[in-house]
Amino acid sequence: MRPHTPAMIKRLLAQAKDFVAEGQARLIAQEARVAQLGRKGREGYESSKLLRIMRDTQNLQIGHVKLLERELRATGDLGAVTSTN
Length: 85
Known about the structure:
The protein starts with 5 loop residues before the first helix and ends in a 10-residue tail after the last helix. The chain is mainly alpha-helical. It is built from 2 helices and no strands.
C-alpha cells in the first residue's frame, strides 16, 4: 500500500477534525440526556451505555486525528488544515 500524499492527509485530517467536533456536540447532548434521566429518578441504563460507547468512539476519533497529524509532520508539509464544513 502506497503512503498517502500530503494533500490526501490534509483532506483526511480536516474530515477527522470535523468528526471530532461533531462527536463532541453529540457527547454533550447525550450527557445532558443521561443527567436529565438521573434528575427524574430514572435509571437510564441504555442511555448511559450509549454514552460510554460514544466516549470510546470519540477517543478513537481523537487518536485518528493525532495519527494523521504525525503523518503530516513526517511529510514535512505543515500547511494549514481547514475544516471541510
